[in-house]
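Write out a record, fold above all:
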Amino acid sequence: MREFNGLIKYQMQQYFSTSKFVMPFAVLMILLYSIYSSKPVGVMDSLTVSCVFLFLVMVWVGVTACDMEDMVSEQILILRVQSAGKYYVSHAVFLFLLGMMISAVAVIFPVLMDLWNQGQLFERPFGAADLAGGFTLMCLSGFSGASLGEISHPRLNKDRKAAIIFTFLLAVTAVTKTALLKEVPVLAVILWVLPPVSDVMAIFADETYFSVNKYSTAFIILLLSGMIWTAVKIAGLKKKGF
């Protein structure tokens, strides 16, 4: 367990020793301000839109995080812990924790804006259940996005330009999936594999509060999506080798 924690700590230090986090964070703040700069704001609408923003930002983070991995250092760490699986899982946990940090910012921001507006920002009071539910869904949306971003790993596709373009096309398609399926229902045959961030928006459309059934559905599909894409990336790296 100490080795596993050490891997996560090392990856955190490596990531924050660069400036790669600055642009995604700045873009997120701009997007959040665009949501909460006018009032009144729908609580559920703002939280689900924030989930979409977190998803896209974490796709970006996933792409840049795998770009900064040095092949030699990666091999040394795998040899040191004597397990490629342990290293790859630690990287997924690192991204999940990074997503949690960004999600915390995304839920604290509207609370601060509401205080700034003397409690008049939202159409209804923003409660603890909204805070907890929104935070969890944002974490899972971020995890799903980072997992998708990681399939652009240099060892899986050495053509970086093509890999990045393809990954972001998948991300945009995931966000617009519901609208695409309304126009071309047959696309459901292939689009089901994409992260369900668009489905989450559809689940909570016209909702005023989180309901247990709909929240559980959103929780499960986002978690499964993140785990599946992570497994795909790990399987691909193990098969590809160095």
